[in-house]
TrEMBL record, chains A, B, C, D:
Keywords: Hydrolase. The lineage of its organism: Archaea, Methanobacteriati, Methanobacteriota, Stenosarchaea group, Halobacteria. One of its GO terms (molecular function) is acyl-CoA hydrolase activity. It comes from Halogranum gelatinilyticum. Residues 35-108 form the Thioesterase domain. It comes from the Archaea. Signal peptide: none annotated. This is Acyl-CoA thioesterase. The keyword Hydrolase applies.
């Protein structure tokens, strides 16, 4: 497994294209916080994995500079969440990706993420 | 363990006060990404754990609305990173927290996080 | 003029729908900073005006909680920039809007903005 | 006046140091939105002016990449708001600034801003 962190959490890479990627995570008990809901860090990690895959898809390594997340809806235990990353801008030095998180069964948006990378 | 996600990743709660919290994480091999550096999701999760502890410290449950992160410096495997959350504003309905991530040994800032919560 | 600030800067409302809005601004000399390029605040204000129009389009007043912007490309003096706001999520209490800024003549993306509102 | 945009809005530079700056703006009628409160773009522009002054204080031109704002409290017409920018991290290529907005008379925090620049 080339990405130990994703393996630790159970994040799978579903699709990978030039500047795009989709990752998936099923919410299990060991991803819950003290409220009994999925930890924000778990959803973030899912989004970040799609962002990293998409931003590194062109060959040159990309380093994350800035990210932000809006948490929109709660997710139930057992649900599978998909994160779909799209490249919205790219120059030689920086690039921007939008990642939308939705539940797999009904397509409800649960979070929106945006990230910016730098290519050294 | 009341927070299974933090237990999964190895995030410890070091300090907890009224509106403040410090969490710690030592970077192990299973937190690395495909570049061989700590996954952004691991550092985010550390920050988010401090944010959640601080924002829930007043008794009423707090729900995360928005977060953002600036990644500033790379972290080596084996290093311990501290996340210190401070309450910078609070009204009856919303509150804002700043979380600064530093390496434990030399205090270098590696990331800055800000989060906003809503109390239903 | 019901929005004095927009009148001060020269921001026009081009379109307004349920949860959507488009605003426009032509970059004039009095919007420049000390680099001789449009001030970030001018582009932000254009985006924020579309965000405010879209988020208040349902009747109930909406209060901005959080916004973020990625600056992607420089804009020349004389260019007209369009900001198009789209509602990406809405519950009874909060809503999220994405605003994309493009040049009118060639449609190049110059900035991406996301905002979250609360309805008291 | 070297910064026409700040002159247009009435933003003054109060202090400028190495990596730091303070700007001030008094809320006048022409800065109001359709709610009759100061436009978010006016407060943002005040913060952005402090950010720009601080980030360009070292001599090399700095280009804004990403910014974010939390709006915390309403501001009355007639109030003077101060924006204080502090450099929280700097490498050869990028730097991070935090800007805190407070009312001049009672020091209440009304917004928090963070920005990241790139030096080409």
């Amino acid at each position: 497994e080339s990405d130990p962190y994703c393996a630790t959490l159970g994040i799978d890479l579903r699709e990978l294209g030039a500047g795009s990627a989709t990752t998936a995570l099923t919410v299990t008990d060991d991803l819950l916080n003290f409220h009994g809901t999925p930890h924000g860090g778990a959803l973030y990690s899912l989004a970040d994995a799609a962002f990293a895959a998409a931003s590194n898809s062109h060959g040159d390594p990309a380093v994350a500079l800035e990210t932000n997340v809006s948490y929109l809806a709660a997710v139930d235990v057992g649900a599978t969440v998909l994160a779909t990353a799209t490249e919205t801008h790219r120059t030689r030095r920086t690039a921007e990706y939008e990642v939308v998180l939705t539940t797999e069964t009904d397509g409800e948006r649960v979070a929106t993420f945006r990230g910016r990378v730098y290519r050294p």
